[in-house]
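RECORD TYPE: inverse folding
INPUT: structure tokens
STRUCTURE:
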């Protein structure tokens, strides 16, 4: 097994991924708790760094999987209440559309929501999403296709 970074190199190893980890955590638990989740995930990654195997893939999917796990734990410890009114001016058309989309995304099945978050909001490519979700790239493409169909139904818009 190829081990993870050395204690001296850990900072340099995770630093390029911090923005992506934070975006994913914010999608999972909300912006207010994202810093806590990323911090918790980095502690866990530090503790488990010897289990990282470079032969199995790049560090980003491994780190995102830890963020996903820490996000789930965070949600079970604390019920997240999303203040949807804080999204923007409720009188503004764009804010209402964003609010409708966010509500629809929250209603997706967990696997579809995860694929949408990783692909559209975190900005990962299909291959990396597949690594994080531990499935084939074709499965990710199919899941995204299904999610778009579900969103069309939930929003009532054929242009999603």
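DESIGNED SEQUENCE:
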């Amino acid at each position: 097994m190829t081990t993870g970074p050395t204690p001296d190199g850990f900072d340099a190893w995770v630093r390029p991924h911090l923005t992506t980890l934070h975006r994913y955590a914010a999608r999972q638990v909300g912006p207010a708790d994202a810093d806590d989740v990323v911090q918790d995930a980095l502690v866990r990654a530090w503790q488990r760094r010897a289990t990282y195997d470079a032969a199995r893939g790049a560090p980003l999917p491994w780190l995102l999987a830890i963020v996903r796990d820490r996000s789930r734990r965070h949600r079970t410890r604390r019920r997240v209440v999303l203040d949807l009114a804080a999204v923007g001016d409720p009188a503004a058309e764009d804010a209402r559309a964003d609010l409708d989309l966010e509500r629809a995304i929250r209603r997706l099945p967990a696997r579809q929501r995860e694929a949408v978050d990783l692909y559209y909001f975190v900005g990962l490519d299909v291959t990396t999403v597949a690594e994080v979700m531990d499935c084939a790239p074709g499965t990710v493409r199919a899941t995204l296709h299904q999610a778009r169909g579900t969103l069309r139904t939930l929003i009532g818009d054929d242009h999603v």
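NOTES: The chain has two domains: 1-81, 87-160.
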